[in-house]
Amino acid sequence: KYPRSFLLRPEQTNMNTHQESTPLAPSSSAAATTVSSLLTRENAEKAAGYVKDQAEKLSIAAKSGTWSIRALALLGGIGMVTTGALSLFGRIVTLHWVSALINFYVIILGVLVIILEGRKWLPVPKSFEANVRKYALFLDFIWGRGCLYFFIGSLQFSLMNMIDITVGLFMCFVGIAYVWFGMKAAKKLSQLRKSLFSEEELRDKFNAADTRQAGTIDYGQFRVLMRTFGIVLNNTEAESAFLRLDKSGEGQVTFEEFLVWWGNTQFDAEQNSQFAMSV
What we know:
The protein is an all-alpha fold and 279 residues long. The protein is built from 13 helices and two strands; from the N terminus they run αααααααααβααβαα. 77% of the residues lie in helices and 1% in strands. The chain has a two-stranded antiparallel sheet with strand order 1-2. The model is unreliable at 4-28, 30-39 and 268-279 (pLDDT under 50).
């Protein structure tokens, strides 16, 4: 005969009161979801910024090298010019023509090393850098200069003089260090590039480039696709890549062929940098 609420103990009454007030919970849950999404978006933006920053640093390392290793190369170039100039006159006087000719080459190449590593401080004409990119593009990258420095060092080492052997071995060491650091930086940058896109995202970009909805892309569409990644290939690079992709020779590439190529291809530092800035 008594109301049910009258028969409940106080703690049960409090429980029921709490349950009756639960309609407010959905709004707090929605607010938590909104905050969570905002935090997720903020983290994603931070992650993207971090990726770009790391990619830019790796690109610089792969293309220019660190200050410490560049200082070693510059020191080696100065040493080559100095020792070469001191030895050249003596070899000419003693009629050691072959040694004198090698000595002359060492001096010229030593000057080239100084220009390559000190061009930020030296008044190097812009035409020089333009010619380097046109005729010796490999010198614009640390691994390419490393190969050159190793060759120069071995050339000076062949003179078999104590000073020449010392400077030559030093330049060989610098060359090996350049190649190692350059390959390491390029590999990290390439791995960074590959890790940013899933297979599904790659397929979406491929389908967007496939404007004919044929399931394949031609040479022009391939170049458009690469530009969506921020990777700019010149005519020679694009044609070479497309020939490797087009196994059948029909001028069409499937997504499966593109996926294999994307996973195995090593882009250079400049192309990886362009990719990173487009993320």
